[in-house]
Amino acid sequence: MKKIVVTGASGYLGGRLCNALHRQGYSVRVLVRPTSDLSDLPPSSSSAPLEIVFGDVTDYSSLLSAFSDCSVVFHLAALVEPWLPDPSKFFSVNVGGLKNVLEAVKETKTVEKLIYTSSFFALGPTDDKGIADENQVHHEKFFCTEYEKSKVAADKIALEAASDGVPIVLLYPGVIYGPGKVTAGNVVARMIVERFSGRLPGYIGNGNDRFSFSHVDDVVEGHIAAMTKGQLGNRYPVTGENASFKQVFDMAAVITDTKRPIFSIPLWVIEAYGWLSVLFARITGKLPLISPPTVHALRHRWEYSCEKAKQELDYRPRSLREGLAEMLLWLKNLGLIRYPANITL
Known about the structure:
Strand order of the largest sheet: 3-2-1-4-5-6-10
Strand content: 15-25%
Radius of gyration: 20 Å
GO cellular component, one term: cytoplasm
Domain NAD-dependent epimerase/dehydratase: 4-234
Protein name: NAD-dependent epimerase/dehydratase domain-containing protein
InterPro entries: Epimerase_deHydtase (IPR001509), NAD(P)-bd_dom_sf (IPR036291), NAD(P)-dependent_oxidoreduct (IPR051783)
Oligomer: single chain
Organism: Crotalaria pallida (Smooth rattlebox)
Distance between the termini: 39 Å
Order of helices and strands: EHEEHEHHEHEEHEEHEEHEHHEHH
Structural class: alpha/beta
Number of helices: 12
Helix content: 40-55%
Largest sheet: 7 strands, parallel
């Protein structure tokens, strides 16, 4: 049985991946910071051991300890936020962290496959191009967010490492949604909560945005499949159905038999609110849900095909409606949203 290490194991996607690997009987070692919330990690057992190594992707020595004797590395650790007061942190974690991981893989010499979780943002917007695939290269004429800019820089480093013989497979999820932690990495759940609470009373913009939505458990299965089926040096978008947030809100209303929003909030209004949120964040230290960079991303399209993953990884993403229904029921059971009791989904 392969020994597996997961960076970013305490995050939204990382926690779901660790639980799936645990259910399948894999021996998993997780690299987490001493301050990380480990409540979503599975318990260790004799049939599926879970070993915890405290460290950080910016701490090279901790990576050497974590990767020792492991044959597969899932590198999920990343800083995923709409905005940070110090944008250099995106690069120290998302770029510097990847560089450290690559060097640690080379030095430990036992790693047979490194599965790197990138982002569809690294491939760039698809404005006026229709639906793109893994062959798209970011135009780099502009970046909507510092996160996007850091993932583009990291993508170049990962591809260069692949050409130098590092056994790496690159995965590109879309907007990840579904049950799990309601964090910045689960923005759809956060926006649905805002919508049902009345704090977000209308549509965001006029529906010209288009994103590729990836259910978290589909992305997890794509990662596990990449462990055995992913071809070294290859890029795989593990995306899903392409839709606008307007369509997401409409679909959520139909599923829950609740009213749809009756008006659209112009993006300039949301951007103004974003600036206020950033000002409030600087005062309180609490990161905003909406920021001007988020609005910039909403002005573009990010539509991707996962056909390559379907063919080579047997990736089978669920429909957006099915995934939303599951997430809405989960949010209801947590008491975060309400809808008619007779709707059981």
